[in-house]
Amino acid sequence: MTTSLLPVLPVLLPLLGAAATVVAGRSAWAQRAIGISVLAAVAAVATVLLVQADRHGPVVSEVGGWPAPVGIVLVADRLSALLLLISTVVTLAVLVYAIDQRIVDYGRRTASTTFHPIFLVLSAGVSLAYLTGDLFSLFVAFEIMLAASYVLITRRTDATRIRSGMTYVTISLASSLLFLTTVALVYAATGTVNLADLATRVADLPTGLQTVLALLVVVTFGIKAAIVPLHFWLPDSYPNAPAPVTALFAGLLTKVGIYALLRTRTLIFPEGHPSTLLLVLAAVTMIVGVLGALAQNDLNRLLSFLLVSHIGFMIFGLAVSDAAGIAGTALYVVHHITVQATLFLVSGLITRRTGTVSLDKMGGLAKRAPLLAILFAIPALTLAGVPPTSGFVAKLALLQAGAGGGSGTAIVAGIVVLASLLTLYAVVRVWVRVFWGEPREPLPDNDPDDELVVGTARTSTPMYAASAALVAVSVAIAVAAGPLSAITTRAGDDLVARTPYRTAVLGDGGAP
């Protein structure tokens, strides 16, 4: 265990950067430089935290000098540091893309100074969610993320975005109320909200009360992670936002919900056997999501349903409940953060060239934009889990974990294979309809005064570069599959053991 101020920086730097971008609101160049510099610095800090956590154990920061469980602590262990690093890299690439797409502060005819501060506030909320050591601060982190996302998803709206934004806001507020109620019930029952302290106190509660609290946690974070049947808000909300916003939400926000489930289920409500409820939810989520994708003609809605489907893959690893399953989920989250964000960025590139999201109105892009075809093909095949991509490595880890968990996990492992094949079929259909055939003329921009340029039959270099960078990260995950799997395996062992986290936060009082 290492005590350090480093875990504070991924939260503090974006907040200070957000304030600085407000002050520099009259200078587009200054705002962009601040945003990129802050996220690059956070990525560097996350790298240091990952190295320290892997070598020496969790890195702990006692905010305000008060020790746990009384004070607020920020904790960077292998899992949280790894997810913080990959999330920050994705956020940085999305920001570069958004700057060039001109959805940031200065559009074509109007100017605003909201995007950069809100973007950095969202980054601070994500960092706090990964690093916080207590339930109430986790609630605060979600509220920071949601408040920022409300602004991003409704900027410069039309009627369609307002309707989808209302759905998103309403469901988010309901889940936040449920989360706050859960925190209150946990505190009333145990007298603490510190995660490490709860690991021992919840075990002393009556079995029935433990079950109720565990179910509340699953429902609360299930909404935020878009687990079927709590997913209905996502396909109606994400596709209507600009590509960078959708990429950021798809890559990060649902994964924070998965992380919260991972942390609370392993630390507070551990199970020594496969969870039947989570196995059922995983199977249903995988199938409903991929079948919903096959029914779509809208490219963004198709990707949104595939996002829902692959949430089920992560829930499957959590349902297995052993170290191998947890490690498989961690590896899958790392892979999916990158590939899902990449696909939505590439979707934005396709829309920019064609002027539409309708698959029926596209065709022949492989001839006119071969680089764009490559940028789509690699993450699409990665999402489907075609060897030797990172998706294949992550799914193989999940299947290996499920193979030894009994008949129930073996059945759901078969559903993993089926959902992967259907995902491959879905992305191949997109490839055929978008990139093959005779080239079609781009549709005209039906709103030349809004913030997005579409139907141009061309795309600028920085947008390509940002998308290609994320493709390269996905390829790097596959190349470094051995070391990365070793890290997630050690993370899974720590999460199941619970002792390293508790000891790091509570000292010797956290040891059994």
UniProtKB/TrEMBL annotation:
Subcellular localization, as worded in the UniProt entry: Cell membrane; Membrane
Signal peptide residue numbers: none
GO biological process: ATP synthesis coupled electron transport
Molecular functions (GO terms): NADH dehydrogenase (ubiquinone) activity
Membrane-crossing residue ranges in chain numbering: 34-52, 82-99, 111-130, 136-153, 165-189, 209-234, 241-262, 274-295, 302-320, 326-350, 371-390, 410-432
Annotated NADH:quinone oxidoreductase/Mrp antiporter transmembrane domain residues: 133-419
Membrane topology: Multi-pass membrane protein
Keywords tagged on the record: Cell membrane, Membrane, Transmembrane, Transmembrane helix
Membrane in keyword set: yes
GO CC terms, sorted: plasma membrane
InterPro entries (UniProt xref): CPA3_Na-H_Antiporter_D, NADH_UbQ_OxRdtase, ND/Mrp_TM
PANTHER family assigned: NA(+)_H(+) ANTIPORTER SUBUNIT D1 (PTHR42703:SF1), NADH DEHYDROGENASE (PTHR42703)
Similarity section: Belongs to the CPA3 antiporters (TC 2.A.63) subunit D family.
Protein name from the UniProt record: Na+/H+ antiporter subunit D
Source organism (scientific name): Pseudonocardia sulfidoxydans NBRC 16205
